[in-house]
Amino acid sequence: MTSRVTRPAVRLVAISDQPLSVGEVLDSLDDAASGGLVLFVGRVRDHDHGQGVTGLSYSAHPSALERLQDVCARIADEYDVTGVAAVHRVGDLDIGDLAVVVATTAGHRGSSFEASRALIDTLKAEVPIWKHQRFTDGSEEWVGSP
């Protein structure tokens, strides 16, 4: 008889003012049951809507971590996944810095692709984290703020 320990699907959820680690996300999802792992990394780019970007900062509402946990739990419930992880950066970021890392694992790649897409899209739509962009012409813009 073989026994198997079942791990909770939500493995890592964090909002951090420190640089993000893709390795930490991958390590949190390491298990023998997962044949597919889909990872999305969002980085700060040097442009947006035709304007040059010099940098940005992210601010999070005090409820953001709880909302991110809820989003991860929903994705774990709605999709056939074995693992879910999501981390988002706050504070000042430079061009090329990692802003968000999300990943899911599943027995097969299809489920993981679908879940990861839903995870990043739902995070962006529902988690109260706001982006303040600074442009090369001296202007600035808040994105996602109420």
Structural overview:
The chain has 146 residues and is an alpha+beta fold. 27% of the residues lie in helices and 39% in strands. The protein has 3 helices and 9 strands. The strands form 2 sheets. Strands 3, 4, 6, 8 and 9 form a 5-stranded antiparallel β-sheet that branches. Helix 2 (64-78) packs antiparallel against helix 3 (109-126). Residues 1-6 have low confidence and may be disordered.
Please sum up the structure shown:
Pathway: Cofactor biosynthesis; molybdopterin biosynthesis. By secondary structure, the chain is an alpha+beta fold.
Residue runs with pLDDT of under 50 for 5 or more positions: 1-6
Radius of gyration: 16 Å
Cα separation of the termini: 55 Å
CATH class: Alpha Beta
* Beta-strand segment tally: 9
- Derived from helix and strand composition plus strand pairing, the structural class reads alpha+beta
CATH T-level topology: Aldehyde Oxidoreductase, domain 3
Task: Please identify the oligomeric state.
Answer: single chain
Give the domain tally.
1
In the CATH hierarchy, what is the superfamily? Molybdopterin biosynthesis MoaE subunit
InterPro entries: MoaE_sf, Mopterin_biosynth_MoaE
Pathway: Cofactor biosynthesis; molybdopterin biosynthesis
Catalytic activity: 2 [molybdopterin-synthase sulfur-carrier protein]-C-terminal-Gly-aminoethanethioate + cyclic pyranopterin phosphate + H2O = molybdopterin + 2 [molybdopterin-synthase sulfur-carrier protein]-C-terminal Gly-Gly + 2 H(+)
Function: Converts molybdopterin precursor Z into molybdopterin. This requires the incorporation of two sulfur atoms into precursor Z to generate a dithiolene group. The sulfur is provided by MoaD.
